[in-house]
Design brief:
206 residues; alpha+beta; 2 domains; five-stranded antiparallel β-sheet; 5 strands; 56% helix; elongated
């Protein structure tokens, strides 16, 4: 009876380890590749000339009517609708009577939408160039539950990824512990990794 119980646990741990890993392959690949890109940023930004900068995309005349909202959040949403860029965004800085600046989030290149009331003008800039490097970096830092399907779903899967990573660790330790012949080698790896992590964490906090 005891043996069959352990065997059931073994099967569950293998299934958990295997299928969560297969489902999350695209996300783990993005985080792995983007982490490498960030660690070697100079290769891509300087060596390959992929550093992004703001470039003017277009300018639009905009004079609000009598029904124009008063709160910055509602104003930002109305302006983005006017310039056909409705979607997830943030407001930069503190809005005033002279300007309201928004960042319209987009993985292929964020938009900076600036409304200048005195000039009745909306200036739209975009981060360029768009490249594989810029897209994977943007996906790496994609976060928060925003009221848009893709952003909400991505945030949910990020939570699933972090949970699955912890489950991978638990299942990996479990599967190692269930193999007596490999306990010594596995234990040495576990101790070595933990000690090295602790040393580096202390040094980085100094």
């Amino acid at each position: 009876m005891e043996t069959s119980r352990w065997l059931r646990w073994d099967r569950w741990m293998r299934v958990l380890h295997l299928y969560t890993g297969l489902f999350l392959v695209p996300w783990m690949t993005v985080y792995a590749v983007s982490a490498f890109c960030l660690n070697h940023k100079e290769w891509f930004t300087e060596g390959l000339g992929l550093a992004q900068k703001w470039e003017n995309a277009r300018e639009v005349e905009f004079t609000p009517g009598s029904g124009f909202p008063q709160s910055p959040a509602e104003q930002a949403a109305a302006i983005l609708r006017h310039v056909d860029l409705e979607g997830p965004h943030t407001i930069m800085g503190t809005p005033d009577a002279n300007q309201l600046v928004m960042i319209r989030l987009c993985a292929s290149g964020h938009y900076r939408v600036s409304w200048f009331p005195p000039r009745s003008r909306v200036v739209i800039d975009r981060l360029q160039p768009t490249s594989f490097y810029s897209v994977v970096n943007a996906l790496h830092f994609q976060h928060s539950y925003r009221p848009y399907f893709a952003h909400w779903a991505w945030a949910l899967i990020v939570d699933a990824t972090t949970t699955s990573t912890i489950l991978w660790l638990i299942s990996g330790i479990y599967l190692w512990a269930r193999r007596p012949r490999r306990r010594l080698a596995g234990g040495l790896c576990l101790i070595a990794g933990t000690v090295l992590f602790a040393i580096l964490a202390v040094l980085l906090c100094r």
